[in-house]
């Protein structure tokens, strides 16, 4: 049964960024960041607003070329297939929920019966089978984000990037999203995610990449990070969040 | 007969022309709609892909192209008419086709007139959508052409209102069709040119009747545009 099968593994890992620097106008958004994303390690990118979390995520996904520095997906410098991204505000097309997933699959070259199966599985895993024919943009905020996750799920990605996927959701919808992310990870997908929700990071993260003003402050196993962060910046941030 | 009397009589006569489906009036209205519809379709085939392309592709001189396109929205119809007249006249480069003073010439003129309008308005709409969709579509590995097609389809309701605006501009325009059509009775006479002619001749009922029909068409177009927007927003968000 395909449900028990792990997602096909492409070969875009590890992702290695070296001295990544992003400058927009006069602002340095990322400053000499070295980071490696290993297969199977759930990595959370944390940091205060404006630290460069979303920008780093986009560079790792290949949406944004760094101004300086290099990014390599398993030594290739071409963005590989097998990646998907879920954004803070889901971008859904003006068509039905099911057709949104189908659209993504078609771009990945998946059509016909295989596409039908994947769409059904993805929609049922996020609890949207009954909403399959509804216009995607008429769904509630939580449903829209679940649909965005279903779209990513159907692609059976090797790596899934999530940019604050629960930032505008209520606690129940947030829990639902976390459950889905856990399920996707259970299929062998490597998760790279940003959040402001520290409890969420504690629940899901294996490792934490902490950014402060565009610089990498530390890259630490999650348990250690939350117990005793190595950098002063992270300590101050965690202290502020606890207050 | 007093002036007020003639005015009221004209209205009565105009009404009876419309209500009685006066053959001459029907013929003129039909030609008007045919010419403007053909122009809108032709202009859409040029303007929409152009708008989508400019919205999605970054190229040197893009800002200038957009500025020119926006300026062309205000093309004076008489100037377009003159231009097409020169092209199609016997001595002109396209004179051999013998198109001057035919409905085809009118379609060409109106197409030139409204294609920039459709391109400029659709460019704006598609570019707004592109700024929202760009990262997601890039993440899904959609190429520029694929993205442009996706955006055209996803903004289809806004684009429908753009087409209605283009049609409205074409059907209400007088200068271009007057020059290249020649306002020939039974051949190239449309609502606007007939109104101009009949008014100057003093035949107010036909002018007024056509004026009322034209007003009604423009009103219906705008209501359709409004209704499309409201419906699509409620249905598709």
Which sheet architecture does the biggest sheet of chain B show?
Answer: none
- What's the arrangement of strands in the largest beta sheet of chain A? 5-6-7-3-8-9
Number of strands of chain B: 0
User: Low-confidence runs of chain A (pLDDT<50, min 5 residues)?
Assistant: none
Termini gap of chain B: 58 Å
Beta strand count of chain A: 9
Termini distance of chain A? Answer: 49 Å
Using the coordinates above, name the CATH class of chain B. Mainly Alpha
What structural class should be given to the helix and strand makeup of chain A?
A: alpha/beta
- Summed up, the helix count of chain A is 8
Question: Over the alpha carbons, how many angstroms does the gyration radius of chain A reach?
Answer: 18 Å
Which shape of chain B, going by the Cα principal axes? globular
Mean pLDDT of chain B: 92
Task: Give the proportion of residues in helices of chain A.
Answer: 25-40%
| Strand-residue proportion of chain B | under 5%
Largest interface: A-B, 20 and 19 residues
Ranges of chain B where pLDDT stays below 50 over 5 or more residues in a row are none
Broad structural category of chain B: mainly alpha
Count of structural domains of chain B: 1
* Beta-strand fraction estimate of chain A: 15-25%
**Overall pLDDT confidence of chain A:** 92
């Amino acid at each position: 049964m395909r449900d028990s099968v792990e997602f096909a593994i492409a070969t875009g890992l590890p992702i290695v960024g070296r001295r990544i620097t992003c400058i927009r106008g006069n602002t340095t958004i990322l400053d000499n960041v070295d980071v490696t994303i290993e297969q199977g390690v759930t990595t959370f990118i944390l940091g205060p607003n404006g630290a460069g979390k979303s920008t780093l995520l986009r560079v790792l996904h290949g949406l944004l070329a760094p101004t300086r520095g290099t990014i390599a997906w398993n030594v290739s410098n071409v963005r590989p297939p097998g990646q998907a991204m879920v954004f803070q505000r889901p971008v859904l097309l003006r068509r039905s929920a099911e057709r949104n997933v189908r659209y993504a699959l078609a771009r990945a070259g998946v059509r016909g019966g295989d596409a039908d199966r994947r769409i059904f599985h993805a929609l049922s895993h996020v609890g949207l089978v009954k909403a399959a024919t509804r216009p995607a943009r008429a769904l509630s905020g939580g449903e829209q984000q679940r649909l965005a996750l279903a779209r990513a799920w159907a692609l059976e990605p090797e790596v899934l990037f999530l940019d604050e996927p629960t930032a505008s959701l209520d606690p129940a919808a947030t829990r639902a999203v976390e459950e889905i992310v856990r399920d996707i990870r259970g299929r062998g997908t490597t998760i790279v995610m940003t959040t402001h929700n520290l409890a969420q990071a504690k629940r899901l993260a294996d490792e934490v990449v902490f950014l402060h003003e565009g610089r990498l402050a530390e890259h630490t196993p999650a348990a250690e990070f939350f117990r005793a962060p190595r950098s002063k910046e992270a300590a101050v941030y965690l202290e502020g969040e606890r207050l | 007969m007093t002036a007020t009397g003639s005015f009221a009589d004209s209205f009565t006569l105009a009404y009876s022309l419309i209500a009685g489906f006066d053959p001459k009036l029907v013929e003129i209205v039909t030609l008007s709609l045919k010419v403007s519809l053909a122009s809108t379709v032709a202009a859409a085939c040029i303007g929409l892909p152009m708008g989508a392309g400019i919205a999605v592709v970054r190229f040197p001189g893009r800002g200038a192209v957009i500025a020119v396109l926006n300026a062309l929205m205000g093309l004076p119809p008489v100037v377009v008419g003159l231009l097409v007249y020169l092209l199609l006249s016997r001595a002109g480069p396209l004179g051999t086709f013998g198109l001057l003073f035919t409905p085809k010439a009118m379609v060409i003129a109106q197409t030139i007139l409204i294609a920039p309008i459709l391109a400029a308005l659709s460019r704006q709409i598609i570019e707004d959508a592109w700024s929202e969709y760009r990262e997601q579509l890039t993440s899904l590995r959609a190429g520029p052409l694929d993205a442009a097609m996706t955006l055209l389809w996803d903004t289809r309701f806004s684009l429908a209102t753009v087409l209605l605006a283009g049609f409205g501009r074409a059907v209400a325009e007088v200068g271009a069709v007057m020059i290249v059509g020649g306002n020939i009775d039974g051949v190239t006479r449309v609502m606007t040119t007939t109104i101009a002619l009949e008014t100057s001749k003093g035949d107010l009922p036909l002018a007024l009747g056509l004026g009322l029909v034209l007003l009604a068409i423009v009103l219906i177009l705008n209501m359709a545009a409004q209704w499309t927007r409201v419906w699509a927003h409620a249905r598709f968000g």
